[in-house]
Design a protein that fits this description.
Rossmann fold; six-stranded mixed beta sheet; 15% strand; homodimer
Chain lengths: 310, 310
């Protein structure tokens, strides 16, 4: 993975994605004693960065019959959107007991949801069988160079926007689940601004990335972790993303569930932005680890697909 | 009230307020079959347009000892902020049983909350007594030319921003409570774009503005109406605002509580913006009356001070 691949991805996806704004907030800066640059990826098409990776991959496929994915989250919507751009069908495999809201969200973007007899345990096998049957192209949510290159486009934009603003980040904080976003952003940042730190953030109850990087090998959680941050409930880093993180990420910060909730609350009340729990992970890390972080920080608000409650 | 007074207000308040953005949303436009221009006043200082009116008035006072207001809503925060700008104290009269959250919000902006023995019935009398005692200047939430001129600055900005975007609004929709915002915006719009309609929006259970304009005199609600839109729970239009509305507002649209909730939900899920119920009134009017509204509409999202619920 190098910068050229990320630039190539940007050229592919640019017509179909937003260059999301880099927001600032005097109130947050005052409250936390930092200069924060908020990469507003909750304003991306489909409400999260996943549209970048899905499109980056989908736009390289030669005449695909359809797109197939396993996801009950933002990747489902990213793939559904990519399929719409290509003018083909999207088929999303989701466990039967996934929330009706998540099924509805994927359908709202035009995808077909396949959930008959699907469980968390058998969903990969079901997807493989469907792939054989339909001939659709399978899009992995993170462990694919073209997907990682797509997520890396966010890092390119962030650095360009920060440069124009004259507040260059000393560290970039990014949520870590399977590692696709972190790998892409780290590749962009380390190529363009080698002295800027790249720090991953994960819930303390789902700290497999931190432990894996310490151990030097991929450690796997025994079961899906309980955390508000449902975008990072993945069991482990990927075979493709792990070595990139090992080479390019400077550290992983664990955060408590309380800090995630407080970060969501601050973004809601102070910046009036709807950010989902996973997207609030970087701000949660500032709340819990601010004292040992540098002054100017870029936070990746990765998505905004949070339920509405009146 | 004329355009010159609004321009003068703009020169006073510009250093201390945001020129809030004019947002658009492809998703909402597609869903509703309209071109919507969203004046994002939830991103204003203090989270609502009330900062404009409070500052417009406060900055004309000669050496005030402090500012005094009756409010358990956004006006309290606007006045508290204006006092901070002037470097004087703010004293806010609120009923003892007002929500602790609202008291905390006013205090967070540096105001002192006076609530001892205060009820909805006696709060005006308490404020008058406090005014005598302290010598602080009283700031009315809407029935004051300098406050109306301040709110009108939002209309000036909106028209300038729409012109640059090349989508000029055929109608501007604005929430109506006491009528300060509607009077200011209508004055600006009718002076600069006389063919653009100005439409007020109020909850159907609080339709005193519609009935007053029909009757040709100020009708007063018997008691504070029950509505999600707590920013427009005022009992009547003001003696100053009523004739302006009568001369310059083209109509008042009533909306149901269900439409207000749905409008909040759409703004939350589609635009990822936190808008309070009152700020969602104009979109609620598009949901309920869209068929008889023109194609290009400017909606004033008047504030974003909505409770955070996890």
């Amino acid at each position: 993975m190098d910068l050229a691949e990320i630039y190539a991805a940007l050229r592919r996806i640019a017509p179909y994605t937003h260059r999301t704004p880099l927001l600032t907030s005097h109130l947050l800066d005052e409250l936390l004693g930092k200069r924060l640059l908020l990469k507003a990826e909750h304003l991306q098409k489909t409400g999260s960065f996943k549209a970048r990776g899905a499109l980056s991959k989908a736009l390289t496929l030669e005449d695909p019959k359809g797109l197939l994915a396993v996801s009950s989250g933002n990747h489902a919507q990213g793939v559904a959107y990519a399929a719409r751009v290509l003018g083909v069908k999207a088929l999303i495999v989701m466990p039967e007991d996934a929330s009706p809201l998540k099924k509805a969200a994927a359908r709202a973007y035009g995808a077909e949801v396949y959930d008959q007899g699907v469980t968390v345990a058998n969903r990969e096998a079901v997807a493989r069988a469907l792939q054989e049957e339909t001939g659709y192209a399978f899009l992995h949510p993170f462990d694919d160079p073209l997907v990682v290159a797509g997520q890396g486009t966010l890092g390119l934009e962030l650095l360009a926007q920060a440069s124009r603003r004259g507040s260059f980040p000393e560290a970039v904080l990014v949520p870590v689940g399977g590692g696709g976003l972190a790998a892409g952003v780290a590749t962009a940042v380390k190529a363009l601004a080698p002295t800027t730190l790249v720090l991953g953030v994960e819930p303390e109850g789902a700290d497999d990335a931190r432990r894996s990087l310490e151990a030097g090998r991929i450690l796997r959680l025994a079961e899906a972790p309980r955390t508000r941050a449902d975008g990072v409930r993945t069991l482990s880093l990927g075979a493709y993303t792990f070595p990139i993180l090992k080479a390019k990420v400077d550290g992983i910060l664990p955060v408590s569930e309380e800090a995630i909730l407080e970060a969501e609350r601050l973004l809601h009340t102070r910046t009036k932005q709807v950010v989902e729990p996973t997207g609030a992970l970087p701000l949660a890390a500032v709340l819990e680890h601010g004292a040992r972080l540098p002054q100017t920080l870029a936070l990746v608000l990765s998505g905004g697909n949070r339920d509405f409650s009146p």
